[in-house]
Design brief:
With 415 residues, the chain is an alpha+beta fold. 42% of the residues lie in helices and 14% in strands. The protein has twelve helices and ten strands. Helix 3 (75-108) runs antiparallel to helix 4 (124-153), helix 7 crosses helix 11 (384-396) and helix 11 (384-396) crosses helix 12. The protein binds heme C and copper (II) ion (CU).
Amino acid sequence: MAQPPVAPAHRHVPSPTIHLTMKTTKTLWLTPVQGAVKAALFIGAALATRAALAVNDLPGGPAVNQLNLHPPVTRIAVEQIWLHNFMLVICTLIFVGVFGVMFYSVFKHRKSRGARPANFHESVTVEMAWTIVPFLIVIGMALPATKVVVAMKDTTNADVTIKATGYQWKWGYDYLAGEGQGIGFVSTLDVAHREMSDAGKPQGDDYLLKVDNPLVVPVDRKIRIVTTAADVIHAWMVPAFGVKQDAVPGFVRDTWFRAEKVGDYYGQCAELCGKEHAYMPIHVKVLSRADYTAWVDARKKEMAAAADDPSKTWDMPALVARGEAVYNANCAVCHRPDGKGAGPIKPLDGSAIVRDADKSKALAIVHNGAGAGAMPAWKGKLSETEIAAVVTFAKNAWSNKTGQIVQPAEAAAAQ
Ligand code: HEC
Ligand SMILES: [Cu+2]
């Protein structure tokens, strides 16, 4: 598969404001004078826009002038923040200690005061100390960090498993296991936000973070996210959950979270993936368990209705593909994957009934069965769309190249 050129991968998470300024700074590559004028204009404009834009904190997303990490909603995020502070304190103590001793020594023992260098080469005590002390500090940092990393990687016993596929430039979500299994959809940036961006007129607190279909998950349940990508490397990141996992084409990676609070949480693709990297946000909606069940039911009904609308007119490739899946799931046990059948099970490959231009012949057998029940009746067990699909498949598979297509409406009429 030809892949579009990708800029060198480095972690870069644009915030809405950074995105704005990046767009504008492009105009600064001009002559120095022009540049200075433009820069002055730009700063003025930026200040004016700042004043004009009434941006508020986005709960579950970025805050205005945010300095610290996001408020945590999972145990892992809490631990990460603790680790961050813990390391910061250790580093600060070392910094103050080392620079304190250094500056004190430089000042106290300077040459102008007649200091003479001491000689403590090959002091076993000092050498032992400066080997063992840093070693103990590193161990002291590595132990708690390892504990958290191991917990982050433990994706076992998930209640719901969802595959997140990165595309240029959107996310695909497929519920692979657990409540909601079978649900799948694509999540893209809200069109209005795209238009605001094109017009250079950002608005609202969720600018470039609003999607058409948010990922929906239940609260207090372990959600395993399996990441992969269809084109280039992306990364699935939701800071409030303390989750960031690369989505690599041809590979499967996983991560998990257990959100402890109902609400909306936002993230972005966190691996530079091309020109619209900033336009593939992540919106996770955490619902109560009851609301989640209701959402799953509604979504399933919608999907069933969309999938098997008996009045829908299909094209040949789509119907054959659907039919092949139906065949493999229901018919191949008896008629074999190659359509040759075996013993009393008549072959479909080359069958006169299957090839007959009168479509009702094959439809009648599939609807009602044959051979006194040896060939089961499928009416009611498969939808008319599935029956139309599998008959179309049989009519065009193997050596049966009839070119005939059976629409769901024809199958329904033939019952
Ligand atoms: C339990 C085994 C079994 C399964 C499952 C099965 N069939 Fe059959 N099928 C048979 C048998 C046995 C016959 C022959 C019946 C007879 O004696 O006329 C047959 C006959 C047929 C025929 C007529 C072939 C001919 O030339 O007479 C068609 C068409 C057909 N099956 C389609 C299907 C399709 C489509 C499915 C899946 C939706 C399917 N069958 C699933 C056992 C099965
Ligand atoms: Cu991406």
